């Protein structure tokens, strides 16, 4: 279906513009149209959330009719599921690729920086992931994604625990704690955006690594000990 080209649209949509007039039309391929709709929906879901967005507004912003959106995705749930799945895979791939060889502390730094990089460079995607979704059962949840990321750093803790005489079966717990700490700090950092990314990562790893360096072999809650005394 033809679409009226915006005079100030995204750069990847304005290539090849003859500049003759605002009435110039361009016909997209099915693949291009699908990507355009995903880009529009991604920005709208980040701005308004799933409940606040509508097929009507997606179609309006994309300058197409509603049936075009239905043809490609079947409805709002369908396009939302694709957007969320793509963001989850993008973040997971980023973290996995960042975990190159190195000292265990460097691996923790790489994981923290990868997550903060995603938050910084894919702000809309991160806002979508941290929202609750009515189709979470189909697309996964942010907590599920954090579980996947935690599994990538779990072996770091496992190796360190074994080398230091700690129970390696506790590695999953500590990896969840680390990833959760970075993710929650990332949500806060997204709003304030200071200090700089590397400084935030350095402080997070400082807390995690130096805490790991001085772990108690049999930690107890001191308040519980006082209660039982």
From TrEMBL:
Residues 14-27 have a biased composition (Low complexity). The keyword DNA-binding applies. The keyword DNA-binding applies. SUPFAM superfamilies: Homeodomain-like, Tetracyclin repressor-like, C-terminal domain. Residues 1-10 have a biased composition (Basic residues). Keywords: DNA-binding. Gene3D superfamilies: Tetracycline Repressor, domain 2 (1.10.357.10). Residues 54-73 bind DNA. InterPro entries: DNA-bd_HTH_TetR-type_CS, Homeodomain-like_sf, HTH-type_TetR-like_transc_reg, HTH_TetR, Tet_transcr_reg_TetR-rel_C_sf, TetR_C_32. Residues 1-31 are annotated as: Disordered. Residues 31-91 form the HTH tetR-type domain. This is TetR family transcriptional regulator. It comes from Actinopolyspora erythraea.
